Amino acid sequence: MESETTIDTQELGEKIVRVLKTIYDPEIPVDIYELGLIYDVFVNEDLEVRILMTLTSPNCPVAETLPVEVEEKVKSLDLVKDAEVEITFDPPWTQELMSEEAKLELGML
């Protein structure tokens, strides 16, 4: 029974990534994960999540709403106790951070 109380943080991390892939940048038809906007996802033993992310630009029209959407969607996962999004522009986002899939989607390959 004990193994059921131990939650695999890697598995939870994968669930978080799946949620992140449902959130899209309003200006680019690619999800924020494939765009490379998510720099890091930390899950501690208390199942609190910290997401380090960036925006395509500091003047991004969704600078106020996108982090809130990310927080709310991640918090909606059953196992997550809390989620916090930290926005950084260091390093600044560039197209190099996009996945091959995103580049293909946008006709950049």
UniProtKB/TrEMBL annotation:
It comes from the Bacteria. Gene3D superfamilies: Fe-S cluster assembly (FSCA). Coiled coil: none annotated. It holds the Pfam family FeS_assembly_P. Residues 14-87 form the MIP18 family-like domain. It comes from Robiginitalea aurantiaca. This is Iron-sulfur cluster assembly protein. PANTHER family: FE-S PROTEIN MATURATION AUXILIARY FACTOR YITW (PTHR42831:SF1).
